Structures are given as C-alpha cells and as structure tokens.
C-alpha cells in the first residue's frame, strides 16, 4: 500500500483508538479467568487479533463483536490441540504468551514474522535453561517444552519489560510464591505497572517489595470482569505532534487519569512550549513554536519516532536520550527515522542511545519515504509530510495495520489530504 500525503492544515476533533497495550492485557487476563468477562472498546488491529487467536487456542471461548469481546476463560491448562501459535510481528503477544503457554506442559511452537524473532528473547532463554526446560529458536520460530516453576527470578530490566509482564501473568497460577528481581537499569517501568493494574482488576494481587522487586503469591485465581479499554496515548502522540507543528486540534477518547507511560507526551509538549488544555475526555493542543528541550525515552520508548518529527520543526535542537531500545522494535527506529528524514534535508544524528535533531520551520518535501515495515515509522512520516511544501509518498504504508488500521481515515476526517493506492 502506498500513501501520498499532501500538505494540509488539520482541524476539528479526532477520537483516538483504544490502547493496544491494555487490550492485550485485558484479553489475556479474561482468557485466564474462571467465568465470562466483557472487554469493551477494542479495536481489531493485527496485533490484537493475534493475541485473541492465541487465547482461543489456549482454550478460551471468545465471541468477537464490532468493538467488544465476550470472553469465557479456560477451565485448566489441558493439552491443547493446535500447538502452533502465530504471533505475526507482535512482541507483546510473543513475550506475554511464552510463560503462559509453558503451563500446558507440552511442546509449543510460536511463529513470528518480519523482525519479530530477531528481537531479543534472551531473558526467557536464560530462564528456561536455568530451569532445565527446552527453549529452541530459529529464524522464524521459538519452540518451548516444559512448565515454568515458582521461585526466584532475576531478570535484566533494560531489554524489554514485556518479559516481566509475561512472568507476572503466569506466576500467580503456580503452586508457590515467586519473587521477581529486576536489574538496573530498569526501563519501561510504566508498562509493568499497567500489567499489575490490569491483574488487580481480575483479582490477582502482586506486591512491590521495593523499587526493583515484586512478590507474587502462587495459587491465585483470575476472576472475570467487565472492563472498558481507554484511549491509547502512544497513538494520541501522533495527533498531539500534528497539532503542535501544524494546527490546533481537539483529541478525544482519552482517560485523563490514565497511568500509561506514553501520557508523557503531554508534559513533553508543554515543556517544549506548546499549550495543552485538558477537557472532559481529552485535550486541546495548540499549534505553537517548539522550543529546544531534552527528552528522556526511558519510560516511553514508543514516542521515539514521532518525537523526531517534533524535533525537525523545533526552533533549535531537540536531544532525545535513553533511546537505545528503539533499535530493537519492528525496525531499528532510530536508523529508520534518520534515513527517511534526511531525504528531505532534516539535520538528524544519532549515537547508539541518543538522537539529536536541529529543527527548522520549512521543508520542501516531495520525496519518497520507505515505511521500514513499521507502523510507528509510517505514521510519523505522514505527520511530518503534513507540513511540507510538496506531497510525499510513503511506500509500505500497510504497516499501520499492526496497531492502527484506520489511521489514514482518521487523518482524512480532520482534513488530511491522503491518497491511498495498492502498489
Ligand atoms: O508492555 C507493553 O505493552 C509494551 C512495552 C514496551 O516495550 P519494551 O518494554 O520492550 O520497551 C513498548 O515499546 C511496547 O510497544 C508495548
Ligand atoms: C513495539 C511495539 O509493539 P510490540 O513490542 O508489541 O511488537 C509497538 O507497538 O510499537
């Protein structure tokens, strides 16, 4: 799919889709609960669909409706019929599933696409090796066999928080207490708290013993719940930056009390001098001059690509630090943004862990971008293109389906001039 984005001034109100991170978590918790849960306000992106299909294979009964799901959880971890679990390109799905499916005590094969199996899995490999369980990986698959045991887990905190979330879903179901020690540097901490908050809604309790240690009692039982997914602050950020660099926008569908780490976009915009008005279920963001700031991505990695777009229109230099994990997402997101933005003359440089962008107010545009098979790169480039003088073409724009299939339609609703075609 190719998207040609013409220069435009957005206006009006956009409603952001429900949080992908919270949807994965709610579907998984409901699938592990004894009884029927209703999970409302779900958007069926590719990542959410693979989590849903995986939970069906585990034995959950799921009725899928337009924007909600009725989920009756599994009775027990019996032998499953189909042991091939497809995760496509979803890191969350794969890393949340591996410990959960270990409870089936049978050989399970996880299939990945794109870059998924090249993204690091070493934390689980080490745990499985230590517990003398089988964990084999090749270019497109991971095969496990054997059940994780309760006990002490010491895990690195700087590769992906998704390993820790995966353990948190699973350890409460074991017969004894477990302790998770998270090594410093501990990044994406907010995502661990999202997992813990979701577990609590399903009556699973875990306890922080200190800033890096979590105690998980065994023999717990997930209870069903009726839960509505709140708006996604990672997706909000694309519209927040669009408003800041281009024209005022009202952005709705948000829980203003949200604990999502990517809610940091609001304070980042404010720090850069942008005016943010809080409204009942969203925000009004005003277009303005973007002042030079330093942005720390330690707790909000998914904001990285769109913040490079904020930087390219800044009045001065924007420095992004603790960005190293962007290199192990669906693409090397630092390299991808550097390559693409340089095509239109952006002054952008990186080290392994930092990005520096010297902004200016105008770019000629008229270039052909590559989407790097990464939804957040495609969406960021579309926002960057909105303010250029000539239309830009984004190749591989279908990558948006991973998290936000209606992104271009939503952009069109607020005045976006985008022409989509199949090649
Ligand atoms: O737990 C989650 O829902 C996520 C955690 C983050 O990953 P890392 O912890 O690997 O940084 C984030 O980048 C990803 O998009 C979603
Ligand atoms: C990195 C992302 O997701 P995941 O890790 O689940 O593939 C993302 O949505 O930006």
Structure description:
The protein is α/β, with parallel strands linked by helices and 423 residues long. It has helices spanning 20-31, 46-58, 91-102, 122-130, 162-170, 189-201, 233-245, 264-271, 304-312, 333-342, 375-386, 407-413; strands at 2-6, 13-15, 36-40, 61-64, 68-72, 84-86, 108-111, 134-137, 141-145, 152-155, 178-182, 206-210, 213-216, 226-228, 249-252, 276-279, 282-285, 294-296, 317-321, 347-350, 355-358, 368-370, 392-395, 417-421. The chain has 2 domains: 2-17 and 231-421, Enolpyruvate transferase domain (UDP-n-acetylglucosamine1-carboxyvinyl-transferase, Chain), CATH 3.65.10.10; 20-216 and 224-228, UDP-n-acetylglucosamine1-carboxyvinyl-transferase, Chain (Alpha-beta prism), CATH 3.65.10.10. The chain contains 12 helices and 24 strands. The strands form 6 sheets. A 4-stranded mixed β-sheet has the order 22-23-1-24, covered by helices on one side. The protein has a 4-stranded mixed β-sheet with strand order 2-15-17-16. It has a 4-stranded mixed β-sheet with strand order 4-5-3-14, with helices on one face. The model has no long low-confidence stretch (mean pLDDT 97). Bound molecules: shikimate-3-phosphate and phosphoenolpyruvate (PEP). The site of phosphoenolpyruvate (PEP) has 9 residues, from helix 3. Residues 47, 90-92, 302, 329-330, 376, 403 line the site of phosphoenolpyruvate.
CATH homologous superfamily identity of the largest domain: Enolpyruvate transferase domain
Number of helices: 12
Residues in helices, as a percent range: 25-40%
In the CATH hierarchy, the architecture of the largest domain is Alpha-beta prism
What is the 3D form?
globular
Could you say which structural class the secondary elements and strand pairing correspond to?
alpha/beta
Bound chemical compounds: shikimate-3-phosphate, phosphoenolpyruvate
The major beta sheet can be summarized as: 4 strands, mixed
Average pLDDT figure? 97
CATH class of the largest domain: Alpha Beta
Beta-strand share of residues: 15-25%
Q: State the separation between the terminal residues, measured CA to CA.
A: 5 Å
Q: Let me know the number of strands.
A: 24
């Amino acid at each position: 799919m190719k998207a040609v984005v013409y220069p435009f001034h957005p206006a009006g109100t956009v409603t952001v889709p429900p949080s992908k991170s919270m949807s994965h978590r709610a579907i998984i918790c409901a699938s592990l609960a004894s009884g029927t849960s209703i999970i409302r306000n779900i958007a069926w992106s590719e990542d959410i669909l693979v989590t849903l299909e995986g939970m069906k294979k585990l034995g959950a009964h799921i009725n899928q409706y337009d924007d909600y799901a009725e989920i009756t959880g599994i009775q027990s971890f019996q032998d499953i019929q189909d042991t091939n679990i497809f995760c496509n390109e979803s890191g969350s799905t794969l890393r949340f599933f591996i410990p959960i499916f270990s409870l089936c005590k049978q050989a399970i094969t996880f299939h990945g696409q794109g870059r998924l199996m090249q993204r690091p899995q070493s934390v689980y490999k080490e745990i499985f090796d230590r517990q003398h369980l089988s964990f084999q990986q090749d270019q497109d698959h991971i095969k496990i066999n054997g059940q994780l045991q309760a006990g002490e887990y010491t895990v690195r905190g700087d590769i992906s928080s998704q390993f820790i979330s995966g353990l948190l879903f699973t350890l409460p179901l074991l017969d004894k207490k477990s302790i998770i020690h998270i090594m410093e540097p501990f990044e994406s901490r907010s995502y661990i708290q999202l997992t813990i908050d979701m577990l609590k809604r399903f009556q699973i309790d875990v306890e922080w013993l200190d800033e890096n240690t979590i105690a998980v009692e065994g023999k717990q039982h997930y209870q069903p719940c009726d839960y509505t997914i709140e708006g996604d602050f990672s997706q909000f950020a694309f519209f927040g930056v669009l408003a800041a660099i281009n024209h005022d926008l009202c952005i709705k569908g948000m829980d203003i009390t949200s604990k999502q780490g990517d809610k940091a976009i609001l304070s980042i915009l404010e720090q850069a001098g942008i005016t943010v008005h809080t409204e009942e279920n969203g925000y009004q963001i005003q277009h303005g001059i973007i002042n030079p700031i330093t942005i720390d991505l330690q707790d909000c990695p998914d904001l990285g690509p769109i913040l490079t777009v904020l930087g390219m229109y800044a009045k001065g230099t924007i420095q992004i630090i603790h960005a190293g994990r962007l290199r192990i997402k669906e693409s090397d997101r630092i390299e991808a943004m550097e390559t693409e933005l340089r095509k239109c003359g952006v002054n952008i440089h990186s080290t392994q862990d930092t990005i520096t962008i010297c902004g200016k107010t105008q770019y000629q545009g008229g270039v052909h971008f590559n989407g790097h098979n990464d939804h957040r790169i495609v969406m960021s480039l579309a926002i960057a293109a909105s303010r250029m003088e000539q239309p830009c073409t984004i190749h591989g724009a279908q990558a948006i389906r991973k998290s936000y299939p209606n992104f271009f339609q939503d952009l069109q609703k607020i005045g976006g001039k985008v022409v989509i075609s199949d090649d």
